[in-house]
Amino acid sequence: MPKIKVTKQFIALLSLCLLIASLRPAFAENSPLTFLFCYENKEFYPHFTGNSTTVPSENAGTVVDILIELNQKVNEININFIRKPWARCLSMLKTGEVTAIIGSYSKDRATYGRYPMKGKQLDNSRAFEVLSTCLLKHDSALLSWDGKKLFFESPPVIAIPYGYHITEQLQQLGFIVYKTDSLKTAYTLLKGKRVSASIIDCKTKAIPDNSQLNTTPIREHDGYFIINNDFYNAHPNLSEKIWNTLSQINKKEHYSNYKLVQ
Asked: Which residues are the signal sequence here (predicted)?
């Protein structure tokens, strides 16, 4: 059997290969975790813009801008964005297909998603934001809202997108709800006087033509960054870091970038 000549070069190459192999797990551990955030494919200005399944390359909305800043501050994750119908985002969080969404608290969602907590209570100091919904009415519509009661001569028709939680509340106030595929469509109907009212985020200054904003919110609630159970259970400390970092981001600065956008 011929002898194998072991040279210094061979030994050095073998040592280098063994070193690289030993480092691979460390490299993998330090790689950012893929973090898939799902949000609605319909515009809800200024939170997210565009009626599309794609994320706009610029002026994508305050939610996207804030999460991009989060991604820059939390190196352990790499946030990717996906746009789906809202009901689909919820189901994908439940099945673990996406990592997070933004939404209000509900007992059902709490069975498959984690909220920032302080002991056994929701920690609203770490809510993503307080969402305020205001009433828009056509210039000619004879209706008003004082924060408790809606005043009108005949039941007004209000246009809002499918799936919005505010629907039942509006019906209880006396509105006839006409459901649309987006707020953009609702505003088109309002401008054309085909409906009397719609809704808008109270923060926006981009008021549709031929309409008036009632600045008294018709609904207020905390919006939370909800993380799916699987991710939280695997990375509890990282999840807490994400919530803490989000609470420290200056969100007003991001909103100010959209005040004059029409």
From this structure: 1-28
